[in-house]
Amino acid sequence: MGLVMDEEGIKMSKHKGNVVDPWDVLNLEGADAARWYFYSTSAPWLPNRFSHESVKLGQSKFIGTYWNTYAFYIMYADIDNFDPTKYELDTKNLCAMDRWILSRLNSLIKEVDSKLQAYDITTAARMIQDFTDELSNWYVRRGRERYWAGDMNKDKIDAFMTLYTVLEQFTRLCAPFVPFVTESVYQNLVRSVDADAPESVHLCSYPVADESLIDRELETEMELVRNIVELGRNARSDANIKNRQPISEIFVVSDTKLDEEYQGIVLDELNIKSIKMLDDASTLTDYKFKPQLRTCGRKFGPKLNAAKEVIAALPGKETMAALKSGPVKITVDGEEFEMNEEDFLVEMVQPEGLSTKSDKGITVSLNTVLTDDLIEEGLVREMISKIQNQRKETEGLQVTDRISVKYCGNDKLASIIEKNKETISSEVLAVAIEAGNGSEAGLREWNVNGESISIAVEKV
Predict the structure, then answer these.
(1) Are residues 202 and 258 in the same domain?
(2) Residue 342, C-beta contacts closer than 8 angstroms, at least 6 positions apart
(3) Rounded alpha-carbon distances, angstroms, from residue 44 to 3, 270, 458
(4) Are 365 and 377 found together in one domain?
(5) DSSP label at 48?
(6) 2 pLDDT exceeds 70?
């Protein structure tokens, strides 16, 4: 193995006083976190820069994310008394997200097994860490509302069974890497509902990929969806539009056309009303023109400054299209001049009302014009978010508890709340939403897109 150096890249030495006591690491971050650091940071034969912060980072990115995903399942399974041993996973009739995560899981199992056969532990560990992020921050985050349904319908059962199946197999996959945390998860996830299961995760068979569940085309489509969503978020950020503010449309230019099912994921994830798939990005760009002084100096002479103003005012797309066919004519101080493409300095710009981002052969453009209806819908979503936050911060309230909501202090928002009371109530589990008088217990002031309002929530 390579040397374990300190965080500055200096060889550890008692003489230099930069030695790390292993027990300090084990007591602070844990044995699994220390193991994971050495697995995932670099190939064994390379030197490692070791520090508590590096171990913590791995603990957070992988172990913490894995544990939180498991805890999410356990919380909702406990609420609904869900027993996975009483159901079977219907793999032939699942939604795209369920089919995708099962495909990704089995692809991962196949790849990790191949890497371990070749003693490539570092690549295997990094694949596992990447999958953990996909599982938590894409699959589970996108499907949270499926676990909130009131009755145990087919979609809810599919959600529970898919997540249970993934967690159970993923736990066995990770057991050699993080033996302690996987044992803890296994005992509560599997043994608590199946007394006939092996006594320990380390007595289980290592998972084998089910080739029938691997769908490379689906994985490629979902990767495209995720890339589009990432570009869309960046375009929102550039336009300074919050994610909770609905916008009217998104334009996507890609070699691969998304099916309607995947288009729906993009719209839902980015909070957009409609999507248009375009063949090229020409409609998403505009042009600005300046005179090329090398040719225009002689052409305009003393009228050059006046010509600059005329050229700057030219309509971008129309002028560029005309130039492709031949010269265009402009009039400066009553005199007509013929202009060729070499007479211009052309700058590609973003049209007014669009925010555009491109990467990996994909171009995404958002319509940033907000109508009054869109602005109102954005305020409703912000109100829901604020009430949900207040729910979480109110002592004694559980995720399934019904509440009453009182509000005061803003006539504009009060009118919007009354108009959208049914929508807000269903989202925050409120049995009543009413105007208050400002004396309610637990009243808290919130800033909603620049508007101030006070809210009180109470368990019913």
Answers:
(1) no
(2) 292, 295
(3) 9, 41, 56
(4) no
(5) E
(6) no
